[in-house]
Write a structure and sequence with these properties.
Length: about 350
């Protein structure tokens, strides 16, 4: 079976790797460089903390497990970082309680216990107790993950955009590229992230997207012992390699007050007073119209598949495997029913 995957972000790479593992001949085409789209500018926290409805929560929980599995299987899989995540503020105790009841690993810590995990935090900025800790959460270096997934048995065409879809009867036959190249295929998987709507339109499919622009702030290397994802009420932190810290907040996408965000960050981690803003990256969250993933086959166009969502870093390995199975003719209706493209056509 010949499959063309459009897009070499985390989704395209995960779908391609799962297909190649099962013997398909796979070409991944990316308009730019692999991992250089949204996946290269993501907070990439692996979690299912606030995912609703329950079918979406379950998909994310399975995504978390898939990351831990792959990291266990691959020696020196340096892209995956466990260590859990910490948070505090309004509603945390209730959320911990609800998550525990659903079987999600969640605990409430005292200030002393939290500072033991994160000794760089200023204890005076923490409540005495009620600090949420989620031991199974983690974060990923998405570009390293893409590199691993594309390293075996997958042909990658970079720097050439898919500009058209070739259809014969009611079935996909191949794609055309900006360079003029034609690639024939038995199946095409749309993994174009924020551009999925435009790529779907080439197939005559109307996929509504409500992408959101966002801003990530990368500090200079700084000697703070940040070891995990931390969500303070107004700043989110995670390590970013070589001592850099990645900062984000609910507000920053709108305000772009990057120096203010760094000041807020240093009020929690005093060691960060020595940091400066080294770079700012702008990304675009790929969000299908109703906020839920679009996964799997399209009824009415044989050989056309989607793998598009927000939270794609968490979901890519598990959802990518489900989509690949379906491409190869294994019915995954049970797992993908809630995420079909056809819900937008009703
Ligand atoms: C600021 C921010 C924070 C986030 N935080 C999290 C988080 O904490 N946890 C989480 O799980 N998720 C998070 N996400 C979401 C997650 O990053 C995305 O869901 C995921 O990266 C999407 O991956 P993708 O492969 O679908 O898209 P992309 O990585 O964008 O890949 C799509 C690729 O398709 C290519 N392409 C587009 N059009 C064409 C074409 N016509 N021909 C060929 N190639 C084409 C692009 O060049 C691109 O490389 C965040 C996103 C952002 C922006």
């Amino acid at each position: 079976m010949r499959v063309v995957v459009v897009g070499a972000g985390v989704y395209g790479a995960a779908v391609a790797a799962a297909l190649a593992r099962q013997g398909a001949t796979v070409t991944v085409v990316d308009a730019g460089a692999p991992g250089a789209g949204t996946s290269g500018a993501s907070f990439s926290w692996v979690n299912s903390r606030d995912k609703r409805p329950s079918v979406y929560h379950d998909l994310n929980v399975a995504g978390m497990a898939a990351h831990r599995r792959l990291a266990d299987e691959v020696p020196l899989s340096g892209w995956y970082h466990g260590g859990g995540a910490l948070t505090w503020g309004d509603g945390v105790s209730e959320r911990v309680e609800a998550l525990r009841e659903s079987g999600y690993a969640a605990e409430l810590l005292t200030r002393a216990e939290a500072v033991e995990l994160e000794p760089g935090l200023d204890p005076d900025r923490l409540p005495g107790d009620g600090i949420g800790f989620f031991p199974d959460e983690g974060w990923v270096e998405p570009v390293r993950l893409v590199g691993h997934l594309l390293s075996r048995d997958v042909e990658v065409v970079a720097g050439d955009a898919v500009t058209g879809l070739e259809v014969g009867g009611d079935a996909v036959r191949g794609v055309r590229l900006a360079s003029g190249t034609h690639l024939s295929a038995d199946a095409v998987v749309n993994c174009a992230g924020p551009r999925a709507g435009e790529v779907a339109a080439m197939a005559g499919l109307a996929l509504p997207m409500r992408n959101l622009p966002c801003v990530l702030v990368y500090t200079s290397p700084v000697a703070v012992p940040l070891a995990r994802v931390v969500h303070a009420p107004d700043v989110h932190f995670r390590p970013e390699g070589d001592g850099r810290v990645l900062l984000h907040s609910g507000e920053i996408d709108r305000t772009e007050q990057v120096e203010g965000l760094l000041r807020d960050a240093a009020s929690y981690y005093p060691g960060m007073r020595a940091a400066r803003v080294e770079s700012v990256r702008r990304g675009e969250r790929p969000i299908p119209g109703d906020g839920l993933p679009v996964l799997g086959r399209v009824t009415g166009l044989r050989g056309y598949f989607f793998a598009v969502s927000h939270s794609g870093v968490t979901l890519c390995l598990h959802a990518g495997e489900l989509v690949a199975d379906e491409v190869l003719g294994k019915d995954r209706d049970d797992a993908l029913a809630a995420f079909r493209f056809e819900r937008f056509e009703r």
